[in-house]
């Protein structure tokens, strides 16, 4: 698989370890930076990651910052990217199965390398279930123009 990975300065070490591990597994990894612990702004790297995934240069993206929250918000600003902030494998699986997430976000200050690997592995191995979930995923990229006319789910 082609996987893009980006972080802020707080997640440099986790980014490097995950990128190396993914390459050892045979994946093609695009490290979008940063490349030092000098302070940077996570939105810059979140937007960059979202663009690469949305244009199809990478099949999946991994976004990292101290908590995972800020970078996940920036990645999710792109209408064709669905980034799930996870901290354990079940949420990683559900992000793929139910939401067809194409990016995963992790907090370097909240999860260790082994848990991060478990989350990424589960994320990459889980297929989207489609079916009833597809309608909902479609709405993430194309929200209704008039929220007053939203029909109840059946």
Automatic annotation (TrEMBL):
Give the UniProt keywords, A-Z: Isomerase
Q: Name one GO molecular function term.
A: ribose-5-phosphate isomerase activity
- Per the record, the domain of life is Bacteria
Query: Where do the record's region annotations for Disordered lie?
Result: 134-154
Q: Which SUPFAM superfamilies match?
A: Ribose/Galactose isomerase RpiB/AlsB (SSF89623)
For the keyword Transmembrane, the answer is no
Q: What EC number(s) would the UniProt record show?
A: 5.3.1.6
What the entry lists under Pfam families is as follows: LacAB_rpiB (PF02502)
Q: What class of enzyme is it?
A: isomerase
Q: Which family does it belong to?
A: Belongs to the LacAB/RpiB family.
Family matches, as NCBIfam families = PRK05571.1, rpiB, rpiB_lacA_lacB
> This protein is called what?
Ribose 5-phosphate isomerase B
Origin organism is Altererythrobacter litoralis
């Amino acid at each position: 698989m082609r996987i893009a990975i980006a972080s802020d300065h707080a997640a440099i070490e986790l980014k490097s370890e995950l990128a190396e591990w993914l390459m050892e597994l045979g994946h093609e990894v695009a490290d979008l930076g940063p490349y030092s612990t000098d302070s940077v702004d996570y939105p810059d790297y979140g937007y960059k990651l979202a663009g690469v995934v949305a244009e199809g240069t990478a099949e999946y993206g991994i976004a990292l910052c101290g908590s995972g929250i800020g970078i996940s918000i920036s990645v999710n600003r792109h209408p064709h990217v669905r980034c799930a902030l996870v901290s354990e494998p079940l949420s990683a699986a559900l992000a793929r199965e139910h939401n067809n997430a194409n990016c995963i976000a992790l907090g370097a200050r909240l999860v260790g390398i082994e848990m991060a690997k478990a989350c990424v592995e589960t994320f990459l191995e889980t297929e989207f279930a489609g079916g009833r979930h597809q309608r909902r995923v479609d709405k993430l990229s194309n929200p209704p123009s008039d929220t007053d006319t939203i029909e109840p789910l059946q």
